[in-house]
Every structure is written in structure tokens, then in C-alpha cells.
């Protein structure tokens, strides 16, 4: 925060407290010229106004709130760049990578030990909550990590935990129902680019995936792409021009290096099966043409550092359970 905004916030915060104090003092003054408790010589609907002071209990409470406000600003951050005597922060600010976040967590925990004049501070609130969560849930994750995914796939409690982790980390791309969307696979069917065994699902979550579909427009030209697209669509039973199909079949020899001579794909490479009419980016002629023209470079991030192996074990269990009987 710049010095200007730090001063601006400090002036507003302290000015508000000072203003409340001055208003209270002004209200306690007897400005009427009438002794306290005497008749103000004013009545309305039979009710006579008396010059009574503010209730003492109310005044004391108002003073207490002012004192509390001052103490709060001294102990906690609230005056611009002032960090407060307790060294409290809601979270580590300005981190730009996972490693920076981990380093900031360690640093904040060390600072918390000596924040309050060497008597120990409260540190970063988010870090404390994470630490409490780790202490509470670590035994649960350890217990499930010792069991095979095939066994856990029948454990309702394990699946609930895996589902919550999925919703927090995976649903943004694959959807809350795991049925995916354009460019993001449906995880509830039996069509897998890299394989749907527990080991392969864990491998995908740990290492991530990067699509490697090359752009063929420079090599094939527009006519060649049209021919390859026609043959590709015919593999899943679509009606196409026969001449284009036969010309595309010859060109498909280049594509077979990944998709196989029969077009059924190769899970070792993540090359999709082109014969099942299941399309990751869409199966219309225009979309398939776009794919062949420009290639695809979708990225599945690695969750090794964000979730860790034990949580990945439960996410993989949930994902495996979605299609294990299909």
C-alpha cells in the first residue's frame, strides 16, 4: 500500500473515533441554561420534557467502545501499513507462485513466535486455519492412503471426501457432475484418453497432461485437410463424400502414427479413439476441421504440489468410482 493510502486510511479511522468522542462530550454538556432535572417548560401531548443527562450506563458503554476501537487498531492492522502489535494478517499477500506461498507460510509462523514483544503473536489467520485442518484431518487421509483405490471406491465416506476435493479443485473444468464440457473430458463414461485404471488416473492427477495434436494445415493444405476430415468422420459412421474419403484415407497414414491405422487411438500418447463418435472439442465438420487445421494444446495441470499424494488418492478414488461399472 502506498504512503498516501496508508495515511488516508489512518486519518479516516482515527478521525472517526475522535469524532465519536467529541460528539459524546458535546452531548454531555448542558447547553440549555436549565438545571439538570428541571422542567424544560415544553410539553407535547401531555408529556413534559425534563432536562435529563444521557444515561450513565449508556455513556460508559460508549466510552468502552471508543477504547476498544483504539486498542483494536493498536493490536491489529487497521491503520494503513501498520501491522499491529500482534502481527496478525488474514492471509499472505502478493504471493505469485505455490513455492512463494509455502515460503510465506513458514516465514509467518516464525514471525508469529516473536510478534508480541517476544511473547508470541497470532500470525497469519489463513495459515493457522490450515495448520489446524492438517492436524485434524491428517489421520483420516493417512488411513485412506493405505487402502487400494479399488477398495475405497466402495467406501461411502471416502467417496464423500473425494467428491468434496473434486468440487473444490476439478469441477471448474469438468463440471460439478464431472460430465465435462467442450475441451474438458467427461469423467463418467468409459472413454479415456490416457486410460481409466486407478494407476492411470493417479498418474494424470500427479503429473498433469498436455495435449500434443499438431496443426496439419501447413502440411496438408486446405484440400488435404478437407479430405482427412471426411475420412475421419467416416470412421464413426458418418455419411461423407466417397471421393474425399478415399483421398483422406491415404493421407490418414500420417495420422495413424498416433491414432493407429484403424483410428482407435493410443492411450499411451493420449490420442483419442476416432471411431466411437465421442469428441472432446465437438464432432461437427467445422470443429473437426478446426482441430486438424490448427491442432490442440489443452493442458491438465499437475495437482502434486497443490493437493499432495494422499488427497490425490481420494480424488482418484472418486473419479474412478464414476465410471468403474461402465
TrEMBL record:
Residues 157-236, 243-323 form the Cytochrome c domain. Pfam families: Cytochrome_CBB3 (PF13442), FixP_N (PF14715). The keyword rRNA processing does not apply. Its cofactor is heme c. The keyword Lyase does not apply. It is found in: Cell inner membrane. One of its GO terms (cellular component) is plasma membrane. The chain crosses the membrane at residues 7-24, 60-79. GO terms for biological process: oxidative phosphorylation; proton transmembrane transport. Heme c 2 binds at residues 213, 255, 258-259. Binds 2 heme C groups per subunit. Keywords: Cell inner membrane, Cell membrane, Electron transport, Heme, Hydrogen ion transport, Ion transport, Iron, Membrane, Metal-binding, Oxidoreductase, Repeat, Respiratory chain, Transmembrane, Transmembrane helix, Transport. Pathway: Energy metabolism; oxidative phosphorylation. Heme c 1 binds at residues 170, 173-174, 300. GO terms for molecular function: electron transfer activity; heme binding; iron ion binding; oxidoreductase activity. It comes from the Bacteria. Belongs to the CcoP / FixP family. C-type cytochrome. Part of the cbb3-type cytochrome c oxidase complex. This is Cbb3-type cytochrome c oxidase subunit. It comes from Aliiglaciecola lipolytica E3. The gene is ccoP.
Amino acid at each position: 500500500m502506498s504512503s498516501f493510502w496508508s495515511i488516508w486510511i489512518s486519518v479516516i479511522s482515527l478521525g472517526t473515533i475522535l469524532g465519536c468522542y467529541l460528539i459524546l462530550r458535546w452531548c454531555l454538556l448542558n447547553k440549555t441554561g436549565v438545571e439538570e432535572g428541571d422542567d424544560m417548560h415544553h410539553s407535547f401531548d401531555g408529556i413534559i420534557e425534563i432536562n435529563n443527562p444521557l444515561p450513565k450506563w449508556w455513556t460508559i458503554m460508549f466510552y468502552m467502545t471508543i477504547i476498544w476501537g483504539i486498542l483494536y487498531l493498536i493490536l491489529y492492522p487497521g491503520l494503513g501499513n501498520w501491522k499491529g502489535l500482534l502481527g496478525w494478517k488474514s492471509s499472505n499477500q502478493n504471493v505469485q507462485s505455490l513455492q512463494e506461498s509455502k515460503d510465506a507460510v513458514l516465514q509467518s509462523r516464525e514471525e508469529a513466535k516473536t510478534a508480541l514483544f517476544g511473547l508470541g503473536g497470532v500470525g497469519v489467520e489463513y495459515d493457522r486455519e490450515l495448520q489446524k485442518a492438517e492436524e485434524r484431518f491428517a489421520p483420516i487421509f493417512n488411513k485412506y492412503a493405505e487402502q487400494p483405490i479399488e477398495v475405497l471406491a466402495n467406501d461411502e465416506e471416502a467417496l464423500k471426501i473425494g467428491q468434496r476435493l473434486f468440487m473444490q479443485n476439478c469441477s471448474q473444468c469438468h463440471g460439478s457432475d464431472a460430465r465435462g464440457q467442450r475441451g474438458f473430458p467427461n469423467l463418467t463414461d468409459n472413454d479415456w484418453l490416457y486410460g481409466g485404471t486407478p494407476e492411470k488416473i493417479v498418474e494424470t492427477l500427479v503429473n498433469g497432461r498436455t495435449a500434443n495434436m499438431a496443426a496439419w494445415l501447413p502440411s496438408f493444405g486446405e484440400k488435404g485437410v478437407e479430405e482427412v476430415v471426411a475420412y475421419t468422420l467416416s470412421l464413426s459412421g458418418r455419411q461423407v463424400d466417397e471421393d474425399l474419403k478415399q483421398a483422406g484415407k491415404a493421407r490418414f497414414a500420417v495420422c495413424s502414427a498416433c491414432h493407429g491405422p484403424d483410428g482407435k487411438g493410443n492411450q499411451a500418447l493420449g490420442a483419442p479413439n476416432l471411431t466411437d463418435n465421442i469428441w472432446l472439442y465437438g464432432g461437427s465438420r467445422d470443429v473437426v476441421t478446426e482441430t486438424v487445421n490448427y491442432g490442440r494444446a489443452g493442458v491438465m495441470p499437475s495437482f502434486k504440489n497443490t493437493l499432495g499424494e494422499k488427497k490425490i488418492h481420494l480424488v482418484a478414488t472418486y473419479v474412478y468410482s464414476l465410471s468403474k461399472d461402465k
